[in-house]
């Protein structure tokens, strides 16, 4: 299958998942995760109209970003070391992996220096997997309270990675829980604005994630 067919297939499946769950296709955005490919394939993805690009390491993203950043919106989706914030700040419209106070403080510092507001997702390790990054959901409010004092950092949503399952259906409770946590965060009133987004669902499980309320899905291998 060529790129166009693979993209069409993902979009058809997204659409079917929206219909099944009574959602509008416009409410779900597709991030093309280009970490597996180089500049030319990333350019091709953009030529096919996918303008939200996800990368998980600056080292790997650098050349692609330098050549193509004007054309799209860039999402940093990988674990972020505090000393690497300087590389990604101001370049990626969204950081999906905020998972600790020290990282929030560093983002605040660097965003303040650039006089920008950095939009972030709080990454939660909902399934409690040892191998995964992300904050323990029990610490969500504590981090939110801290972030509420940081004027250059805005929380736009919550993000999670579900465990790798052969049966995508098995991921459903994880996605449902992320949604519940978002609603609970909004009900708490800790942040004086509403947190709208859920970044959840990858190639193996994006349909289930959409059924459970994903507003951003991050899809790599199903496209590239
Ligand atoms: C690689 C990656 C994805 C995409 O994974 P695929 O299974 O290839 O779709 C999504 N999110 C994160 C955080 C990733 O690192």
From TrEMBL:
Q: Which residues carry this modification: N6-(pyridoxal phosphate)lysine?
A: 35
- InterPro entries the UniProt entry points to: Ala_racemase_N, PLP-binding_barrel, PyrdxlP_homeostasis
Entry keyword annotation includes Transcription: no
Gene3D superfamilies given in the database record: Alanine racemase (3.20.20.10)
Q: Name one GO molecular function term.
A: pyridoxal phosphate binding
- Which PROSITE patterns does the entry mention? UPF0001 (PS01211)
One Pfam annotation reads Ala_racemase_N
For this UniProt record, give its keywords in alphabetical order, as a comma-separated list.
Answer: Pyridoxal phosphate
Q: Which residues form the Alanine racemase N-terminal domain?
A: 24-223
Q: Which PANTHER family match?
A: PROLINE SYNTHETASE CO-TRANSCRIBED BACTERIAL HOMOLOG PROTEIN, PYRIDOXAL PHOSPHATE HOMEOSTASIS PROTEIN
Indicate the family of this protein: Belongs to the pyridoxal phosphate-binding protein YggS/PROSC family.
The protein's role, per its UniProt record: Pyridoxal 5'-phosphate (PLP)-binding protein, which is involved in PLP homeostasis.
* Protein name, entry field: Pyridoxal phosphate homeostasis protein
What is the originating organism of this protein? Answer: Paenibacillus albiflavus
Taxonomic path? Bacteria, Bacillati, Bacillota, Bacilli, Bacillales
